[in-house]
Amino acid sequence: HGKENVDSRHSRGRGGDTTRFHTVNVAQPVRFSRKCPTGWHHYEGTASCYRVYLNGENYWDAVQTCQRVNGSLATFTADQELRFILAQEWDLEEKAFVRKDQRRFWVGYQYVITNRNHSLEGHWEVAYKGSSEVFLPPDPIFGTAMSENENVLCAQLQCFHFPTLRHHGLHSWYAENCYEKSSFLCKRSQTCVDIKDNIVDEGYYFTPKGNDPCLSCTCHNGEPEMCVAALCERPQGCQQYRKDPKECCKFTCLDP
After folding, report:
1. Spatial contact of 37 and 49, defined as CB atoms under 8 Å apart
2. Burial (CB count <10 Å: 0-12, 13-18, 19+), residue 65
3. What is the pLDDT of residues 145-183, one digit of tens each?
4. pLDDT in the model for residue 62
């Protein structure tokens, strides 16, 4: 993609002949800025997308909501990933379930109580099978809504809203009654997103987000590959025109 008009240049060839070069549609580097659907935050380190859902749900309903968007409640593989989560602004001014300066989200861990004698002894587990290698949280703060009959508590990650606290990575881990309602953090693999913000399945052709609606690529592991560009002629009989940013070879004539 590039120039639509024909750029004619002259140069003197061997033997004094005039050679005419036509430069049409000069190729440009292809850059893709979006690997997650709208509303999700991308982290290159894990090739994953993250989203906080503000509608308060209990732990089990939150699990199902994440599954419906091809994800799961978030677990973390390294400190760097957790620091990325803590540093984000999650647009949490509304629908708060706790104080405005500190937020708690359900995440994908459960605390299994093994001894209720003098202190609650137990250990963290990943809440669902098949997840990749993850680190487990430190000893939790126990929530106020605990039941004496519960032997399994669910994990809440507490983030802080103030920028200075956020960027210092301050946070806490809570073990809470799983039927309490809370915001929650979903995690899914990065995906191909087309120019109209639709999610594209593996192996399918699509036009990625960017400045070229005439680009066709194959979705492979959440990345556009094997891209081919169509070339468009400028509209005939129209001096001033506007390209449609999302439709290939579609123009609007601006002449009177």
Report:
1. yes
2. middle
3. 666 667 889 999 988 765 555 555 578 899 899 999 999
4. 94
Superfamily name and number for 41-92+99-189:
Mannose-Binding Protein A, subunit A (3.10.100.10)
Where are the domains positioned within the chain? 41-92+99-189, 192-253
CA distance 32 to 44: 13
Nearest CA-CA partner of 152 in 187, 200, 120, 183? 120
pTM over 0.85: no
The rounded distance, in Å, linking the Cα atoms of 72 and 217 is: 28
